[in-house]
Amino acid sequence: MLLALSALFISQAALAETITYNVEGMHCGSCAKMIHSKVCTMDGMDKCEVTMGKVVISPKAGIKFTQEQIQSAVSKAGDYKVTGSNISK
Ligand SMILES: [Cu+2]
């Protein structure tokens, strides 16, 4: 039973994740463009979209980003703050 559960966990972990980060301080399309140019160009990004107040990413297989890494890239774009995240499969 325990073995089956951990096997299930591992196979789910191998699937691509979509992570939505909430970002405070974005006011217009050029904020989104700036953030896009810093976050979406990071190595290991598969999909990456920036919309008003949100950054939605899918890392490549085997790649994980921490919120700190995303915050660091977002900070290069300007005075923006990552306030939280949601993971969906
Ligand atoms: Cu702006």
Any overview of this molecule?
With 89 residues, the protein is α+β, with helices and mostly antiparallel strands. It has one domain (16-88): Alpha-Beta Plaits (2-Layer Sandwich). Helix content is 39%, strand content 31%. It is built from three helices and four strands, in the order H-E-H-E-E-H-E. It has helices at 2-14, 29-39, 67-77, and strands at residues 18-24, 45-51, 54-59, 81-88. The protein has a four-stranded antiparallel beta sheet with strand order 2-3-1-4, with helices on one face. The chain starts with a helix and ends with a strand.
Largest sheet: 4 strands, antiparallel
Order of helices and strands: HEHEEHE
Instruction: Return the CATH topology.
Output: Alpha-Beta Plaits
Shape: globular
What is the count of structural domains? 1
Number of helices: 3
pLDDT < 50 stretches? none
Indicate the radius of gyration in whole angstroms.
15 Å
Strand order of the main beta sheet, please?
2-3-1-4
How many β strands by DSSP?
4
**What CATH architecture do you see?**
2-Layer Sandwich
The CATH C-level name is Alpha Beta
Oligomer classification: single chain
Structural class: alpha+beta
What share of residues is helical? 25-40%
**Nearest-integer average pLDDT:** 89
Strand content: 25-35%
| Terminal Cα span | 24 Å
Organism: Bdellovibrio svalbardensis
Keywords: Signal
Domain HMA: 20-78
Protein name: Heavy-metal-associated domain-containing protein
